[in-house]
Amino acid sequence: MVKFYPSLSHDLQTWALAQPIFFISSAPLTGSHVNLSPKGLPSTTFTIFSPTSCGYIDATGSGAETISHLYENRRATIMFCSFSASPRILRLFCTGRVVEWDRPEFDALLSKMGKRRIDGARAVLVFDIFKVQTSCGYGVPKISSSPQGDEGRAFEDRETLGHWASVKVERNEIAAYQVMNNACSLDGLPGLKSARRDGGEVLAVGDVMAGGRRVWGQKGALGVGLAIGMAVVLLAQYSTSFLGWAFLPE
């Protein structure tokens, strides 16, 4: 099912570039929005420089969410999925940077990617891959085998996901699978509560520990807060001393 790799193998590189579409997601450190964008034609816009590096040509669009998020925190996830008979999902967990069209490196990157300057291209987004994940893709529909598909639809559901789940239920293995795979996120955030309980976790304790990790993860903000607090205390002490000296009796 789910497998992790430190880099992108040659087979996965070939498979990714053969897909008709990929997606990129990013988010700010604070705020309400998480961005997810579809991108077409990986074979002509996407380049894999090495097993741990890739990039794509970013066309001018109606927003600049990915660019803004990369400038702020560099985090991004790129996803490919199969719509053919053989299911697969491929995720590339990355840190990225933006090379805008007016920077000297832009043309050099286009040349390295084997591309000419493209009208309307605003940047090349370059990514360092720190983790690769593959999973089954059973829940992704496939392109219909008939010209029109069922009821004129171009896509049809796979039967594999329901069959897989039915087998797990029949074997009484679904709860154990959830404990192993659904109790927390890749970053260690608490996940499915029933899986956490079945795994023996005390939810209140787990939530407190997760809160502590979340606060510690914002240690930069904590440092700024402490610095401001110390500055306020020092200023108050200085003000008190100055006022006391100013109003001493002559």
Automatic annotation (TrEMBL):
Keywords: Membrane, Transmembrane, Transmembrane helix. The chain crosses the membrane at residues 221-248. The keyword Thylakoid does not apply. The keyword Transport does not apply. Residues 37-136 form the Pyridoxamine 5'-phosphate oxidase N-terminal domain. InterPro entries: Pyridox_Oxase_N (IPR011576), Split_barrel_FMN-bd (IPR012349). This is Pyridoxamine phosphate oxidase. It comes from Amylocarpus encephaloides.
